[in-house]
Amino acid sequence: MKAQEFLAKGDPKSVQVALVTGDEAYFRERVIDMIAATCDDVESVDGPSARDGAGFDLGEFLEGMRTGSLFGGTRLVRVRAADHLVKQHSESLIALISSGEMAHRLVLEGESLVAKATKAGATGAKTKATAAAGLAGAVEAASGVVIRCDPLWSTPPPWGGSAFDTELVQWICAETKRRGKVIRPVDAHLLQERAGSDLRGLVSQIEKLITFTGPSGAITAEHIEATVVSSRSTPAFDLAEAVASADTKQAFILCDALFELGVEEPNGRRNNDPQSVAILCTAAIASKVRKLLHACERLDRGASFDEAAEAAGVYRTFAARFREQTDVWMRRDRSRVLERIVALDRALKSGGGPPRVLLETFIAESLGFRVLSGGRR
């Protein structure tokens, strides 16, 4: 079951045991809070360390789960970061859950408690997947539930669709409605563009907008533009815009500034690590390039610019500049650009060379320059 489904229609009182799994921490917290609210007492423990298994006594845990509370009432035991516990002791957990002897309700929380599909021949991974599947089956057989807390898609699928109808836009609309306001999908997308895709950050912005709009029943683009400071108004995203516009001079000016001054993180700290700077810039460029390629593909099929821009998720405020950028990219060889971005990302993360040299080489090649081996630009 998806977290969104459980949060909307789930019956937390009936959950005796739950696997709450996935990369989206905001969903995991909300699901567990919903279950915990139906209990008299909550005990939270950390799972064993993945490095050495320290900090967790399995025997004590199993005995505690079978021992009733001294003062009665419903008690929930929450095991945080349970990935290593599930990986190493799934048989013991299955035996506990299947025994019918649990005196307390149980939540196991982690990022990958249920293994994803693996390639054929990966014996170790298949063993882990089989164990995880056995645990999931035991949970469901014991009046339990497996709740998947996966990140929401913030872009349209490769085969098409509108950027105003993604999972993330739908979630923003639903969260706004849950708080008594309405927001159009096109305006929800603008909020995403300005605030980013972090769910906690988006909730904070939605609540700020609700306060700002007062008695008005709707949150509009004008409200968003007046109150939400764009998290993307940073040199990294300016660099992406320069690359998209094929503005060579500006691209290298910004690149120099980024590596000399660093980038500002969400917590306000400045990060001067060359690898971190290069990876952030690569992510910003990749995001922009995907939009351009998506729009160019639509234009190749005969769509109008307005149709292509909407499919790429470009808000009307930025349409004029995006039109100029698509004009540039429609005249360029686009066949290998994504391949180059993937290669750059892989090289940065695997130590394939000095981060600044790798990024500047990519920019030069993307803008049509021939890069000589053994030297910088």
Can you describe what's shown?
This protein has 377 residues and is α/β, with parallel strands linked by helices. It has 3 domains: 146 residues, Rossmann fold; 65 residues, Orthogonal Bundle (Helicase, Ruva Protein, domain 3), CATH 1.10.8; 132 residues, Zinc Finger, Delta Prime, domain 3, CATH 1.20.272.10. 54% of the residues lie in helices and 9% in strands. The protein is built from 16 helices and 9 strands. Helix 3 links the parallel strand 2 and strand 3. The N and C termini lie far apart (52 Å).
Summarize it.
With 377 residues, this protein is an alpha/beta fold. The protein is built from 16 helices and 9 strands. β3 (75-80), α4 and β4 (105-110) form a beta-alpha-beta unit.
Instruction: Give the tally of structural domains.
Output: 3
Give the oligomeric state: single chain
CATH homologous superfamily assignment of the largest domain: P-loop containing nucleotide triphosphate hydrolases
Structural class: alpha/beta
- The overall strand count is 9
How would you characterize the largest beta sheet?
5 strands, parallel
CATH class of the largest domain: Alpha Beta
pLDDT averaged residue by residue:
85
Radius of gyration using CA atoms only: 25 Å
Order of helices and strands: HEHEHEHEHEHEHHEHHHEEHHHHH
Unreliable residue runs: 117-128, 370-377
Strand content: 5-15%
Question: Which second-level CATH architecture of the largest domain applies?
Answer: 3-Layer(aba) Sandwich
| Overall helicity | 40-55%
CATH topology of the largest domain: Rossmann fold
Globular, elongated, flat, extended or rod-shaped: what is the shape? globular
Spatial gap, N to C terminus: 52 Å
**Helical segment tally?**
16
